[in-house]
Amino acid sequence: MKEHYHPRREYNAKELNFNELLPYPMEQFAKWFKIATEIETHEPNAMALATTSNGEVSVRYVLLKAHDSDGLIFFSNYESRKSAQIRANPKGAAVFYWPILQQQVRVEGDIIILNQEESDEYFNIRPQGSKIGTWASPQSKPIPSREYLENLRKEYEKKYSNFRVPRPEFWGGYKLIPSLIEFWQGRPDRLHDRFEYRLKDGLWKKERLAP
């Protein structure tokens, strides 16, 4: 017999009205994200990113590192599984969930690679340990043990002990450029507020969706 999960929270933080939404979705995202970074207590920039190729779909959390009027920026190893899927099919979907605010943002669109200057700029402000970790981790590849990974880290710490750690050519940034963004606000009795922005013929169309 199946065991059902019954406990659930009631959503009653606030409502979301059509007239409150800004004209462009990334403006609306910036507004919500700013509030989330002030209120949410843990990783408000965590986004679940889905990629696909050859009929296989993968999803994992990555950290949003920047956003602008064009889209969402994240960084990764170019030799990872996600990067292989992006090369094969440069499209993706992402979702943010902020439980305190009872809000969700869902994004779909194309993924492009950032230029080297933008990737260098971000890499250079990372903590030293993160820079070393980038070199030491053959991301998504099988490794024999934790000790193997720690030894790699020690090798790169020694190698760059007296030098600035350069950005590896196999690591850099991506931007998810939306063609669809949905804003979800939890409401009582599962009658949530949902609004979708969809890009069509160069213009954003905004409409309410049934929950």
Descriptive account of the structure:
The structure is a single chain. This protein has 211 residues and is α+β, with helices and mostly antiparallel strands. The protein has a single domain, classed as Pnp Oxidase, Chain A (Roll). The protein has five helices and nine strands; from the N terminus they run H-E-E-E-E-H-E-E-H-H-H-E-E-E. Strand 5 and strand 6 form a beta hairpin. Helix 4 packs across helix 5. The longest helix has 15 residues. The chain is globular and about 55 Å long.
Q: Examine the secondary-structure arrangement and name the CATH architecture.
A: Roll
Structural class of the helix and strand makeup? alpha+beta
Give the overall shape. globular
CA distance, first residue to last residue: 30 Å
In CATH terms, what is the fold-level topology?
A: Pnp Oxidase, Chain A
What's the topology here?
Elements: H1 25-39, E1 46-53, E2 56-63, E3 66-67, E4 72-77, H2 81-88, E5 91-98, E6 103-113, H3 116-124, H4 128-136, H5 146-159, E7 171-185, E8 193-200, E9 203-209
Antiparallel strand pairs: 1-2, 1-5, 3-4, 4-7, 5-6, 6-7, 7-8, 8-9
Helix pairs in contact: 4-5
